[in-house]
TrEMBL record:
Pfam families given in the database record: HSP20 (PF00011)
InterPro entries in the cross-refs: A-crystallin/Hsp20_dom, HSP20-like_chaperone, Small_HSP
Any coiled-coil regions, as ranges: none
PROSITE patterns, A to Z: SHSP
Protein name listed in UniProt: Hsp20/alpha crystallin family protein
Alphabetical list of SUPFAM superfamilies matching this protein: HSP20-like chaperones
SHSP domain location: 29-141
Entry similarity comment: Belongs to the small heat shock protein (HSP20) family.
Native organism: Chromobacterium subtsugae
Top-rank lineage group of the source organism: Bacteria
Length: 141
């Protein structure tokens, strides 16, 4: 057992109980994670990527492929809405950009790549580019 204090120490609990209502948590949860969590699997013909992007609109997700380098970028917009007959006592919002790049072992065929976004999960199918029998031989002059 570690003798180091836990992340939420006794002092945190004391101040939370001592000053209720002073440190108010956001109504919509914490800010999104600093990094996109993902799973990458390889099949014989393609790479399958699942990236978690909860609360992000499909139009705010951008995927770029450059050879074997894949970049996923998302603009996160979280805000609280207020009704017409309400008075705002507190309003919180979060805007930010999260991005993640990773290198695959083989180049990707961009024309055959496909993306689907459903229930906060981005699914990418990235087919491997076929080799045409090796590199091109240069003519020496």
């Amino acid at each position: 057992m570690s003798m180091l204090p836990a992340r939420h120490s006794l002092f945190d609990e004391f101040f939370r109980d001592f000053t209720p209502g002073f440190f108010i948590k956001p109504l919509h949860g914490d800010a999104p994670p600093a990094q996109i969590k993902m799973d990458v699997r390889e099949t014989g013909e393609a790479y399958q990527v699942e990236a978690e992007l909860p609360g992000v609109g499909k139009e705010d997700i951008h995927v770029e492929i450059d050879g074997a380098l894949v970049t996923i970028r998302a603009e996160v917009k979280q805000f609280d809405q207020q009704g017409q007959d309400e008075r705002a006592l507190r309003s919180e919002r979060y805007y930010g950009l999260v991005s993640r790049s990773f290198q695959l072992p083989q180049e990707i065929d961009r024309e055959a790549a496909a993306a689907r976004y459903e229930n906060g999960v981005l699914n990418l199918t990235l087919p491997k580019r076929r080799n045409d029998g090796g590199g091109q031989r240069l003519r020496i002059e």
